[in-house]
Amino acid sequence: MKAPSYAHKHFPFIKFTDFGYSEMPDYFNVVREPAERLRSLFESHLKEERNKTDNDLTPLDECVRDPKCIHFWSQMRYNALPFFCGTADICVTDSAESLEKAKDNIDKYYGPVGLNEDLASFMEMLEFTYPTRLSGVSKILAKLVKQKTKRNESKYKYGASQETRDILNNVIFKHEHELYKFVKQRFYDQYSEMKDLKSCMKMTDIKKACKL
């Protein structure tokens, strides 16, 4: 790839310096709460409208209670851990080891990792972190929101009970949920620091006041 280049879509973390490259690219990403991620993914795969059952269970509620169904949807290809853990052998399993590897990679090699539910703050962080390359992304997001784009919107929406969400977050995707909480804390810590720096940089003596 010629510089400058930008790559996106779904691929795992790659440590390029292990393959003879002299430097690493700038990594940034977005995560989603596992239960909400699976709900959206599950509903996007529904081919026809479903009525709620007599006991008021949604399709995802039913799936979580069906061993065959939830086994299929809990495979690693539907898990966010490998995207941050990388290509090492431990990254093909959902484990405490792959979780720690993912956290370590994020701390060492990633810029902002935002939250799907707060894209506006993420865009603001990207503009601050990469001002020469990503200036104006907040306006682009605002324009898309105004247009109410529905490119990836699920045709059928059912939601899920709190019990189902708890099972997904705390049992089935326990390690991914731990990663989500780690990213959320990290992101808002960075966001708070960015806000402080922005306020400080409005002052006259920037270097002295902001310790830049």
Characterise this structure.
With 212 residues, the chain is mainly alpha-helical. It has a single domain, classed as P-loop containing nucleotide triphosphate hydrolases (Rossmann fold, 3-Layer(aba) Sandwich). Helix content is 53%, strand content 5%. It contains eleven helices and two strands. A two-stranded parallel sheet has the order 1-2. The radius of gyration is 20 Å and the shape is globular. The two termini are 33 Å apart.
Q: Which residues form runs of ≥5 with pLDDT under 50?
A: none
CATH H-level superfamily title: P-loop containing nucleotide triphosphate hydrolases
Q: Please bin the fraction of helical residues.
A: 40-55%
Oligomer: single chain
Biggest sheet overview:
2 strands, parallel
CATH class: Alpha Beta
The overall pLDDT average reads 86
Distance between the termini: 33 Å
In N-to-C order, the SSE pattern is: EHHHHHEHHHHHH
The count of DSSP E runs of length 2 or more, i.e. the number of strands, is 2
Distinct helical segment count: 11
Cross-sheet strand order for the largest sheet: 1-2
